[in-house]
Write a structure and sequence with these properties.
Elements: E1 3-11, H1 16-26, E2 31-38, E3 42-49, H2 52-61, E4 65-77, H3 82-92, E5 97-104, E6 109-116, H4 119-128, E7 132-134
Antiparallel strand pairs: 1-3, 1-4, 2-3, 4-6, 4-7, 5-6
Length: 137
């Protein structure tokens, strides 16, 4: 099962991150998770949101550079070693990960956002090992 991640390209300028958060909030789009990668000139804000298509639409209307990317959302136990166990399985199955980030759902569960080079292979191998995959909802 694939999910959609929204990537927003931002100038490294004060207030730009807040602008995105405000636009999405005013559009009734919930942000479940995000990460920011930056260079000296720009940043890439990656978001998991309740409505990726609408998020792209409203951000583009405000002149942000936006695109969607397929990612995999994996529910994991929120305990020491859980991430390592999942990564060990993916490595043994030959799944290469470009990047990942995670967020806690509660004290017992977390969600890991994975951007693999091969989505279908990653999904197949996670299913094979009985991992629970989620969607944007």
């Amino acid at each position: 099962m694939k999910a959609k991640q929204v990537s927003v390209f931002l100038e490294n300028k004060s207030g730009r991150l807040n602008e995105v958060a405000q636009i999405l909030g005013e559009s009734d789009i919930n942000i479940s998770a995000f990460t920011v990668a930056d260079t000296s000139d720009f940043g890439v804000l990656r978001l998991i949101v309740s409505d990726p298509e609408k998020a792209c639409e409203v951000l583009k209307a405000k002149h942000f550079s936006v695109r969607t990317t397929d990612v995999v959302l994996v529910k994991s136990n929120n305990r020491p070693g859980a991430l390592s166990q999942m990564l060990k399985i993916l490595n043994a199955e030959g799944v290469f990960i470009e990047y990942l980030y995670a967020f806690s759902m509660n004290e017992d569960a977390a969600v890991i956002v994975i951007r693999p080079t091969n989505i279908e292979r990653c999904v197949e191998k996670l299913h094979k090992h009985k991992n629970e995959l989620l969607d944007n909802d």
